[in-house]
Write a structure and sequence with these properties.
- By secondary structure, the protein is mainly α.
- The protein contains five helices and no strands.
- It is globular, with a radius of gyration of 12 Å.
- The termini are close together.
Length: 94
């Protein structure tokens, strides 16, 4: 995998965050707009070849992280696990 694979995982995650009825109450984001803005900023920085700390990304996909909290509360926990696995494979190859 490559940077392209990482970008695809981030874009796929962003798309899921745009689903109606997502519950952000247990996440670090106050709402959908804030979550999507975070992903838009990360994607922008990657595309601009800005330095991004890997830890910043790993925290997003970590167990008990904000993404997992949204996924559990919004009934897409299985999708989160798939995204998290894809993310792990993508960053292993960077």
């Amino acid at each position: 995998m490559s940077e392209a694979a990482l970008i695809q995982v981030l874009q796929d995650t962003r798309a899921i965050l745009l689903r109606p009825d997502n519950d952000f109450s247990w996440s670090r984001w106050k709402d959908q707009e804030a979550a999507v803005a975070d992903f838009d900023d990360i994607l922008r920085r990657i595309r601009a070849a800005e330095t991004i700390k890997l830890t910043e990304l790993e925290v997003l996909y970590a167990p008990t992280g904000s993404l997992q909290e949204v996924s559990i509360e919004s009934d897409w926990g299985d999708d989160f696990m798939k995204l998290s696995s894809r993310f792990d494979r993508a960053i292993a190859d960077l």
